Structures are given as C-alpha cells and as structure tokens.
Amino acid sequence: MSIRRTSPFILSALTLVVCFFSGREFLAMRAADEIRPGPGLTAARRLSDYFPPLKGTPGDTPVYVFQGPAAGGSVLVVGGTHPNEPAGTIAAVVLAENIRTAKGKVLIIPWANASGFTHSDPQEASPQRYEISTPGGRRSFRLGARVTNPVHQWPDPTIYVNPGGQKLAGIESRNLNRAYPGKPDGSLTERVAFAIMALIKAEGVVLGIDLHESAPEYPVINAIVFHENGADLAATAQMSLQAEGYDFRLEASPPNLRGLSHREWGDAAGIMAVLLETANASHGRLKGRPSAALVVDGQDKFYEKAAKLGRLFVPFGPAGIPLDERVARHLAGVSALLEALAEIAPAKAVSVENIPAAPAVLTQGLGAFLRPPD
Amino acid sequence: MRLVYHLIVLALAAHTAWYLFREKDFWKQAGAALVLILFLLRLVLVK
Fold first, then answer.
1. With a cut of 0.90, is the ipTM above it?
2. CA distance A24 to B30
3. Count: domains in chain A
4. Does A1 touch chain B (CB under 8 A)?
5. How many CB pairs under 8 A join A and B?
C-alpha cells in the first residue's frame, strides 16, 4: 500500500491522539481549585442556595460565610468576576483561609464566574494555570477567561442588550460584570448575576466589594470605583489608604453605565457598592509573551518601556507589579473599607480579625498566608 | 440550541474527514487533520 493511501489513516490516528491529550488538559480546567477555609468559617454554601435554578449548572459556585458572635452588618467580598484577573480571586481565597469575624458577617465568593474559570481567553496564548509557593509546597490555581465559557452559553448575540438596557458587543453577554442585576430566566451569566443579587438581598448585605484587575495602560486603575451610596465610605477608605502609603484614586460609578456591580448592586439593592482595581501586566495589550511567570511575577520589559514613554497610568519598573503586591493592595483596600464602614455606620460595622496585613504579605510573600497543599 | 451547534460542527467535521481521505497531497491531508482536531474537540463540547 502506498504512503498516499496509508497517510490518511496515520493522520487520523494522530488526530485522535492529539484530541485525547489536549482534551484532557482542557477538561482539567473544569476541576475546582482547592481552598481550605480557616477556623473562622461558620458555613459553606453554594450560590444556588440563594437561587435554586442555578443548582447543577456550571454557574454554581461556593459561598463562604464567616459569622461573628456579635451582631453587626453583612459584607460581601467577590473575587473571580473576571477569572483572568487573578489578584481578585487570590485575595478572596486568602481572606477565606485566614479571617475570623468578631462582629457581623462576611460572605466570600472567590470564583464568582465559575464557568469563566473552565477555559482560557481564545487566541491569547494564556497559561491555564499559575502556581504560588507556600511553606508546605506549591499551590496551583486556574487562570480563566474574562467571560463565561461558550460551551456553557452559546451563541453570542450580535448586539447584547443587558438587563439594564445598555447595548454592548455580543461577547459582553458572557461578561458577569455587565449582566447585573441579572435575570431569573436569562442566560447563564445573567442567572449568576441574579443569584448574587438574591444573596445580597437575602443576607442583608450593606457593603459589597468586587475585586478586579486591569491593564496598566487602562486609566481606571489602582482605584476604588464607588456607587454614590458608598461615596463617603470610599473617600474615608481612600484617606486611610493614602496615609498608609497606598495610592488609590477615587472613581465615581457613571450612572448611565449599566450592568456593572458598582452600579447595579447599589441601584437594585441599595447597598454601598465598590470595585477595587489593581494593575496586572498579564492582563494588558502591551505585554510580551504570556506566561505563568508573568501572572505571578508581573515583570515585563515592554511595560517597562511603555512606562518610560509615559504611556501607563501606574509606575512600572524592572521589578514589575507582582501578584504579592496586587493582592496586598486588595487586602489593604478591604481592611480600609471595613474600618470606614465602622466609622460611617457603627450599627452596621463588621469586625474582622486576622486579615493579613499588606506589609506582611509584601515581606513574607503571599504563600505565607495560603494553607499548604495536601 | 445545543443540537443546532452539534449538527453544524458534525457537518463540518464530516466534510473535513472526507476531504482528508479524498485528498492526494500529503500536506493538504495534514492540514485537514489539524482542522479536524478543533472540530472533534468542539463536537464533544470539550473546547
């Protein structure tokens, strides 16, 4: 038999082999990351507990509850709205693995868009995972995509009209932070948004904190974006952060920009809603080769050059902006917001112990505040 | 909607496989095999 006749069979066999190995890698992203909440945990719930139709769908995700012995307010901390912004997710994981609540209640959702963690942004060559060293070994976390997996929500409309009536590009139909306040009978992303709104209302949340990252060339960065309900809170937190040496700018949530957490949580549930942004080089368009090292170390010579040319909105030197620093900023931001809440609304105060201090995270490394792997 | 997606991808995968076996040129066969990988992963909703 000639090679011309046998080659289709050989190539078909190779195709199946490649499908097997690549398929196995893709499927591995559907396994949830490990988390070991600390002794302060009082209940481990699911988002579907607040909106049962979400049960069994790829949008269901863990909710960790830290209820203190004394009465106070409720605070929601959300990471992983955009799974390609790892500082938000890791800050939420660090909080869940360390905190104890003395007064009030803290609810933590580390992987808000659970479906988005099951795939990578297409055509970006993004790594599927990154690792963080802890004293007991390395822990691996998934780096997902900005939006819901199209395997779970398809097709995208040409124009997406979100629940707030804003017209957006079709792909934004899978962006959780454009889908608030959600719809009970909408797309998967809209149902997840609806479930988070249901949680906010059911738990009487007074302050919602959404943890994000953005590209260093994006103007809304190192910022607290606030709903007008939380203007005093954000300004008070910013002053204490500035006093501690953290440069945070204040950005008011535009009233006509619909579907975002800092807008709809405030409008639909009346809570103080804020969104924190840090600078992530692996997230930006000017970066060089994407890699797990870029996610964790945050060093990139192209961003260094861009900083020298004055094209960035944050300082960027040879040391880059590592994940340690980005998570430390988020933790400092959460601490400052809780202190500001106690000052502004003492009856709704939430007192949280054992939040890793930002200087300690910077000196000891992030891994010192993550529980070691099995 | 999922059925529609499956039918579209199945049609494209079948067409590509047919092309792979019909084509005489090895490099064109190899190109079809590479495209077939993507369709097969989509067909089983892995990617």
1. yes
2. 22
3. 1
4. no
5. 48
